[in-house]
Structure formats: structure tokens, C-alpha cells
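Objective 1b of the project was to move from sequence-level analysis to a structural picture of ligand recognition. The entry below was assembled by the postdoctoral researcher (A.K.) and checked by the PI before modelling. It contains the amino acid sequence of the target and the SMILES of the bound compound, fe (ii) ion.
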Amino acid sequence: MDRRSFIASVGGAAALASMDANQKADALEFAMCEELEAAQGGGAQSSAEPEVKPNGYVATARVFRTFGIEPNKEGRKKPDQFFHMGHDNRLPRMSNKPSLLEFFDKRIGHSSHLLQSARLAKINGLPEKVVFACLLHDISVSGFISGDHGYYGSQLVAPYVDEEVSWAIKYHQSLRFIPDEEVGYPYPEAYIRYFGEDFKPEPYIFKDAEYARNHKWYMTARQICINDVYSFDPNVKVSMDDYVDIIGRNFKEPEEGLGYDDSPSSHMWRTMIFPNNFL
Ligand SMILES: [Fe+2]
Ligand SMILES: [Fe+2]
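Corresponding predicted holo structure:
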């Protein structure tokens, strides 16, 4: 992605200048995902005919902007009008017992980057747990919220995955800024190109990266970074079908469906189902 396209994607140079370092990095990752999707014909792999094709879904306001439709942020304009609650007909309708794959299908665009990361981890001979962590590492960027996406993504999946997987998803966010040449992770060249030489993340990133570096699961999170930065190849097309078994073995689908199972992150999945609810 060239610098001009990136700046345009965040709304111009002034908008970019107002972001902190971490927001810039998140915006870059999102823009690169979008570019990759566009190059590959983009969007989620829905077999149904959605009323609005999902090609990116990030938090409530962002999904509508990405879908090119307006959220009902003004609420009712006349006293006899209702506020919007429930399913939004402009988005693919979700079932009453949605699985992770249904979320990938109807809410999470940008899965090419995740699939490419998982594929690369597999090619590199990493254990299935790491391949699976790579498959989910940016699930929040793609499906929920991009700022602090490692932290949100980790919380989103924590009730359903091995603790090491959610831990690694959380800490890949801070570790991606910290090079570790010994294990094959230089500082990402793209960050210099896009953010300049003096780009410096917030102190909490350094603190969390330092903590992660001394943890027994350090290499799991580091492997996400290693298999992450190279996974924006427009010529590599990976199918979710190849990962259905891995999801089956590593993701504990709740019987009631994601969002309705009363787990610590059910409300986050529900926000994805009903992104336009007034309350
Ligand atoms: Fe990430
Ligand atoms: Fe990523």
C-alpha cells in the first residue's frame, strides 16, 4: 500500500497527525487488510445472499461506514418514530445460535489476512495451537473494534479457547513494535515507511511487551507477529474450508450460540449481531 492511499484511508493528513502511535499502527493494519480484500475480490465468504455485502466490520460506527450506510445515530426524529432495536435488515441476518464460522461468514470481513497468517504458520511447521492463534489474531480488527485490537480480540475469544491462545492474541499487539532479531522478527519496515523514524508507541505498549518477553508463552505471541507481517499477499488465496477442522478442535462452540451463552464476552458478540441497537 502506498503512503498516499494510506493517508486517504484514514481521512487525510490532519486525521493521521491527530492519532497516537498505536492508533496509526491499527489504522495501517486495517487499511492493509482492506487493500488485500479488494485485491482478492473482497468480503466475507457468505453463501447466502446478504442485503449488504460484508467487507469489513469494526465496532458499531465503523461497520456502517465501511458498508456505506448510516447508523441510526440520531435516533428518532419525530415523537411517533421508534428507536432501532434488533436485527438490522441492511446486514446479513444472523441465526439464533451463531457459531464462529457464521460470524466469519456474516460479520467478519477481511479474513484473508487471518487465513494467510494461519497458512504461513502451518508452512513454517508450527503447532496447531499457534496456527489457530494466527487464524484469530486480528479477529477484533476485522469483527469488532480496531483500537487496542489485541486486548479486545483476546477477551472476545478467551472463554472458548486455550488460555495460551487468548494470551498470545493479547500480547501480539505490543510485541509487534518490539524487534527480536534473534528469533527472526525485525522492526516492521512498513512502520518506518508509514509513521516515520520517530514513531514511538505509548508507554503501556513497552510495559506489556516487557512482561510478555519474560513469560513462558512469549514465543506463541511472537510467532503471531512473525507470521503476521508477511501475510498481506494479494496473490495467495486461502479458503476457510481448510481451517474448519482446526476451529472444531480448538474453539469450544457454546451450545446456546455465541452471544447467548452468558460468557464474559457474550455481550461483545451480541454487539456484532445487533450493531445498531439504540441501547
Ligand atoms: Fe494485529
Ligand atoms: Fe495481523
